[in-house]
Amino acid sequence: MRGSWTMVCALLAALALGVCQWLVYVYAPVERSMGLVQKIFYLHLPLAWWGLASFFVVFAASIAYLRSRRPWWDQLARAGAEVGLLLAILALVSGAVWARHSWGVWWTWDPRLTTTLVMCFVYAGYLALRGLELPEQRKGTICAVVGIVAFLDVPLVFVSARLWRSIHPAVFAAEGGGLEPEMRLTALVCVASFGLLWLALTALRARQLAVAAHIAHLLMSRHEQDA
Amino acid sequence: MMRAVLAIARKDLTLTLARGGGLVQALLLGLLLLFMFSLSQEVGERMSPQGAAAIFWLASAFCQVLIFNALYGLEEVHGARQGLALLPCPVQAVWIGKALAGLALLLLAQTLFVPATVIFLGQDMSGEWWWALAVLLLADLGMALLGSLLGALSQGQAAKESILSIVLFPLLAPLLLAGIRVGAGLFAGRTAEGVTQWIGVAAAFDALFAAAGLVLFAYIYPGEE
User: Fold this and answer.
1) Which residues of A touch B201 (CB under 8 A)?
2) Full domain range(s) for residue B204
3) Nearest CA in chain A to B223
4) Which of A66, B67, B97, B144 is within CB 3.0–4.6 Å of B103 for a Cys-Cys bond?
5) Of A88, A74, A207, whose CA–CA distance to A135 is shortest?
């Protein structure tokens, strides 16, 4: 049953992403000053938002693991970190292409960019901890603690953009921000479609980890029986 | 609880200062970093205040990693860690006690790193020093609180220095940025822009990591032998 909704979610994501292509390249107008490069925005925004959502999943699943000690939460936290890191790196890469065209540089020490990069390092460190040779429960506890502490860094993404001078555009600021209505609708549909893809990816990876743990447990039981 | 905290801090400071090994390594690494970075300048050239402040905080961060590994390493043998966990007080006393000891050792190290930065990197401290001191104390407090929490995570691991560094350094970034910006103001002879906001950022992080440590330390200490 678990697998069936993941499949439905993945199929819906495929359909929705197809619709997104039409919205991005046909429906939404070409931006006057940036031209076609502005279309990167419809990819960059969902990647950044769902990357952040993944890190929240790590945080929430880590708390749930510490409270219940159920391995499923640990597996979900790991899946969230892997998917989140992937999306955050892709958001940085797509942002760099945007920055090159818009600001003339591949990278700038804009606070939001800097903090996103810092988050990538934090969650890469978290995944490095996953590679340690430790008993599963001890590793789960250590990773849960780091998963919670790491998320304390995430609000700085938003705070820093306001505290320090930022050249990052305020996309959905008050009173409509800087977007045309067609662009706004396209961006929202892209975010929702990527949300379906993100949900399917995270759920699939968490299930994969659960199956791997189950197989490892069966193998260990078999070895014990043989011995 | 405070008695236990102070007793643990006193024990750690006495052992670390008496044995010397861990502290000397941390001091040497920090001083070596400052000296090596001074090689990036031409003869007679003065490093930018921001560059000098960044190197000072980098030296402090590496020093802190070695300090907390040394502090948690004190109970690695003879089941001493389990003994410490049996203290008749909340286990958080260990976290706060080690954070206090680490803070004292870090401040001690920085009393050497500041003159070394001035000498090797050609700086002078003509700015308003009280702002820099306030940020230094807040940043050191945050580094000690988080270092003590994550130091407990890496205890008993084979590559504990590298594990602690890769997890700790990115998390410390906001504190280090605050320290660098205000320190650059001190070396440049002016008050750093937005100094009160930087103090706010450092204080907010201290509060967050203090709360996190209080809640989470009990899950990871004493761990396993």
Assistant:
1) 159, 163
2) 2-220
3) A138
4) B144
5) A74
Task: List C-alpha distances in Å: B161 to A31, B17, B147, B157.
Answer: 50, 20, 12, 9
Q: In this structure, is residue B141 part of a structural domain?
A: yes
Picking from B153, B166, B170, the nearest residue to A142 by CB comes out as B153
Report chain B residues whose CB lies below 8 A from the CB of A138: 223-224
Q: pLDDT of B161-172, one tens digit each?
A: 677 778 888 888
What per-residue confidence (pLDDT) applies to A198?
Answer: 94
Within a domain: B225: no
Domains and CATH numbers, chain A: 2-29+36-167+182-226 (1.20.120)
Q: Is residue B180 part of a domain?
A: yes
Contacts for B174 with CB less than 8 Å, ≥ 6 apart:
A153, A156, A160, B201, B202, B205
ipTM of the complex: 0.83
**Is B220 in contact with A145 (Cβ distance < 8 A)?**
yes
Q: What is the pLDDT of residues A164-215, one digit of tens each?
A: 554 555 555 544 456 778 888 888 999 999 999 999 999 999 999 999 989 9
Residue B1's SS3 state is: coil
Predicted structure pTM score: 0.84
